[in-house]
Design goal:
Arc Repressor Mutant, subunit A
Length: about 250
């Protein structure tokens, strides 16, 4: 079955199963080689890159829908997602399906809800769905070279902007770094998110004052220089900071 036939078949079933005019698009950020990545699909139809989004069933909550969508489209499960925005420009999705007539379910006007999450790419085995040629982690630095469908590049930029705003009030790192890490590694993560270099002394002082780190009685071995101390996140304090916010940053 070719991609157009696939979409036509999906359209027939979708009208019975899904709510019209509402969808969800999760933006999953990862961190690798000191750079941020984002999870994307390359579709069989039109060969453009999209977020692993989809439609909401008539019998499910929106938050549950986005978890199901992410699992079905990429194989990712057990992810905590946070809503960050709504996108509803006219023709945001209609032009993507311009090869079809107006009866196609996917070509209707859809308002989409954006969610974001941060997780290590090494944690998941990606499994693309039948509508996708591939499912991959793509570095943010590569996004200008990519041909996106719909307004998904705009959604990613809004998610990144939201993440940069919230980094001052919520901790990050637990899902992106190994269990044991150094302060330079944590600083690289913050720099990747913020898109700028940070003063090492100021960063170390501020991050320690947050009370979310636990210094370990061991060092990172194997380098040419003095072995740096290793840290882990204090789970109890980290959870409280996620719930109540940071007061010291």
């Amino acid at each position: 079955m070719n991609p157009k036939q696939q979409l036509l078949q999906q359209s027939i079933a979708a009208k019975e199963v899904f709510l019209p005019h509402i969808s969800a698009d999760p933006v999953i950020f990862g961190f690798e080689h000191n750079e941020l990545k984002v999870l994307l699909l390359k579709t069989n139809y039109r060969k453009k890159w999209l977020l692993p989004g989809g439609y909401v069933r008539k019998d499910e909550d929106l938050d549950e829908a986005v978890k199901r969508i992410l699992k079905e489209r990429s194989g990712i499960t057990d992810v905590y997602l946070e809503e960050f925005g709504v996108f509803g420009k006219k023709n945001r999705s209609e032009f993507h399906f311009e090869d079809f007539d107006e009866t196609l379910f996917q070509k209707q006007r859809f308002i989409t809800v954006g969610y974001y999450a941060l997780y290590s790419p090494s944690r998941f085995h990606l499994i693309p769905d039948e509508f996708s040629e591939t499912c991959e982690w793509v570095f943010l630095s590569q996004l200008p070279e990519i041909e996106f469908g719909m307004d998904h590049h705009e959604i990613i930029q809004k998610a990144l902007f939201t993440l940069r705003q919230k980094i001052s009030t919520k901790p990050i790192g637990r899902n992106l770094l190994p269990e044991k890490f150094t302060l330079p590694e944590l600083q690289k993560l913050y720099e990747a998110v913020l898109g700028k270099e940070l003063n090492r002394g100021n960063f170390y002082r501020k991050i320690k004052n947050l009370g979310i780190l636990r210094k370990l009685e061991e060092q990172r071995r194997g380098g040419a220089h003095k072995a740096p101390d290793l840290y882990s996140f204090d789970e109890e304090h980290y959870a409280k900071a996620m719930e109540n916010g940071l007061n010291s940053w």
